[in-house]
Amino acid sequence: MQLNPAKTEVLWCASARRQHLIPSKPVRIGDASVLPATAVQDLGVYIDADITIRSHVTNTDRSCFAALCQISSVRLSLPQHAVLTLVQALVITKLDQCNSLLVGTSGYLQSRLQSVLNAAARLVYSRRMSEHIKPLLRELHWLRVPERIQFRLSVLAYHSVHGTAPVYLTD
Q1: How would you classify residue 32: left for phi > 0, otherwise alpha for psi between -120 and 50, otherwise beta?
Q2: Spatial CB neighbours of 149, under 8 Å, sequence gap ≥ 6
Q3: By the number of CB atoms within 10 A of the CB, which of 50, 80, 108, 117 ranks highest?
Q4: Of 61, 153, 152, 62, nearest to 110 (Cα)?
Q5: Per-residue model confidence as pLDDT tens digits over 65-101
Q6: What is the Cα–Cα distance from 162 to 48, expressed in whole angstroms?
Q7: Model-level pTM?
Q8: Alpha helical stretches, state H, 75-106
Q9: For residue 83, what are the CA distances in angstroms to 65, 67, 90?
């Protein structure tokens, strides 16, 4: 296997209180010299040096709101069911990707993702920010972010117990 220095990242992990002890000098791997990063991406998930998921939430938040802005620009020329389909395909899938990793994250991070979900529901129904969100989420049959995370974990546990999950999970 050959190392590609342009695609190689090094992440030193430490608690938030010990971040200042992490070396900032390049790490030598073979002939390559790689600078340590503060966050790395693997399989679509961003992991921070302090083993939080803050970068993942920030990037998910940013990409979802960018997709919502694009959908919003064509909203008036589309029927509601088309807007709903676009939101589900471009926003909800990003929001749900790897969300089982969000178990135990702070309420602040979950509230940032909830704001994406709220904005998506308001876009589908063309509602203002001042209107209540619960009826919209209920009508769309969308769970709130903490419940979405719990649901994904429950489905994963169900598949593990019934032998339909990958072997590394059923063991």
Answers
A1: beta
A2: 99, 100, 102, 103, 110
A3: 117
A4: 61
A5: 999 999 999 999 999 999 999 999 999 999 998 888 8
A6: 34
A7: 0.80
A8: 80-87, 93-96
A9: 15, 12, 10
